[in-house]
Amino acid sequence: MNYLFKALNDETRRRIIELLKDKDMNAGEIADEFNISKPSISHHLDILKRADLIISEKKGQFVEYSLNTSILEDLMAWILTLKK
Fold it and tell me: What keywords tag this UniProt record (predicted)?
């Protein structure tokens, strides 16, 4: 879970998650929403994938990214256990 919190500790990665909340996107579509290089976006996507926050699927010549809602549900359930 440590890696999950590290992944969420970056504004760019949180913005990527917000984008994927609305629809699945490929890396180019995601990069178009930012003013940073495509390799930087790829790096952020890799970190999000390693934290299991997003899932990638090859569709034709593109890789499409989607939000992994099950990991978010697990995270929310854990956070709720902390409430007394």
Answer: DNA-binding, Transcription, Transcription regulation
For residue 71, the model assigns a pLDDT of 86
Tell me how far apart the alpha carbons of residues 71 and 1 are, in angstroms, rounded to a whole number: 10
Domain boundaries, position 29: 2-81
Taking alpha carbons only, the member of 70, 63, 64, 83 closest to residue 4 is: 70
Find tokens 């929403």 and name the residue.
33
Nearest to 49 by CA among 13, 19, 9: 13
What total of structural domains would you count in the chain?
1
How far, in Å, CA of 34 to CA of 6, rounded?
21
pTM attached to this predicted model:
0.87
